[in-house]
Inverse folding.
């Protein structure tokens, strides 16, 4: 059964962190008692590779010899997904932007990095209307900007404002989930919207929205991560090896077969195939193992969020669990 969650624009992140911390303690023993013959996978609508695997059932086939059953749970964005993973309601999260594990770490979640998609800086951007008077990042001062709290787009906005000598106090942020952000943008209830693909490309093609800035030029790498609960990583490395291999294989297939992949995803996302193909061209889909060196930008992101008061304390983003795939 698919679960659907929405991140409310009025929800305070600090409250989410506190609630997640309390729930972690309350559900730790329950998570330990979960049977090892299942994997509960959380995903977002933009979780391309796992969406393909969900549709073609290749993951179920690969796990069948181990007697492992799958269940799928859909979330509106990465933050509630990792909250659910952190409190033991999921075993695996696929996939979330680079910012999201930082909030999970701040909440005390015991998670393990399993895989990463290499940088895709053009796959998220700050959009303005085609006829907007906003021409530069400095023009955002005093403007209302829609952004999803805790998403990769949140850091892009922070970094872009910093580049222009601004900070969050210089704008009026509207914290909205992707669907709500788009609605506010097309109805001109906000001056700008920070979005990621496929929502980004869809808005550009349908409304002629103009990119004010994406993450290129070292502004924001925009890597996406796949994570598991530490408990599941300890118990079922054999399952994670299969999941890792299938994700890598699927990423290669999507890039090698752009039209076929776009046709498949168009049906899943309710977006036309041409838009999906263009959106996919912005993503690397290069799945690889996570390394300490590869997490370097995580510290920069965490420090930026701390400076804005979005996380409660200084984090050492290197002090995390990294699961390593085993050679076949």
């Amino acid at each position: 059964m698919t679960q659907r969650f929405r991140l409310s624009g009025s929800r305070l992140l600090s409250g989410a962190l506190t609630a997640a911390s309390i729930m972690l303690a309350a559900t730790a023993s329950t998570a330990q008692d979960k049977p090892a013959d299942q994997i509960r996978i959380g995903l977002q609508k933009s979780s391309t590779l796992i969406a393909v695997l969900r549709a073609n059932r290749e993951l179920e086939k690969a796990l069948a010899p181990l007697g492992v059953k799958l269940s799928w749970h859909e979330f509106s964005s990465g933050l509630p997904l990792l909250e659910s993973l952190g409190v033991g309601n999921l075993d695996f999260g696929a996939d979330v932007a680079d910012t999201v594990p930082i909030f999970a770490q701040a909440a005390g979640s015991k998670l393990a990095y399993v895989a990463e998609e290499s940088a895709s800086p053009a796959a998220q951007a700050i959009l303005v209307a085609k006829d907007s008077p906003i021409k530069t990042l400095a023009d955002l001062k005093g403007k209302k900007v829609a952004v999803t709290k805790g998403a990769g787009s949140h850091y892009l906005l922070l970094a872009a404002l910093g580049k222009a000598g601004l900070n969050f106090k210089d704008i009026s942020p509207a914290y909205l989930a992707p669907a709500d952000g788009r609605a506010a943008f097309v109805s001109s209830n906000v001056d700008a919207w920070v979005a990621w693909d496929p929502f980004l490309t869809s808005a550009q093609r349908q409304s002629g929205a103009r990119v004010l800035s994406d993450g290129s030029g070292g502004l924001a790498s925009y890597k996406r991560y796949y994570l598991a609960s530490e408990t599941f990583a300890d118990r079922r490395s054999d399952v994670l090896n299969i999941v890792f291999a299938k994700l890598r294989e699927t990423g290669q297939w999507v890039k090698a077969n752009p039209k076929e992949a776009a046709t498949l995803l168009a049906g899943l996302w309710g977006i036309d195939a041409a838009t999906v193909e263009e959106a996919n061209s912005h993503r690397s889909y290069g799945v690889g193992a996570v390394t300490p060196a590869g997490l370097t930008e995580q510290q920069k992101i965490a420090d930026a969020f701390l400076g804005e008061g979005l996380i409660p304390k200084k984090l050492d983003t290197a002090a995390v669990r990294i699961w390593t795939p085993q050679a076949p």
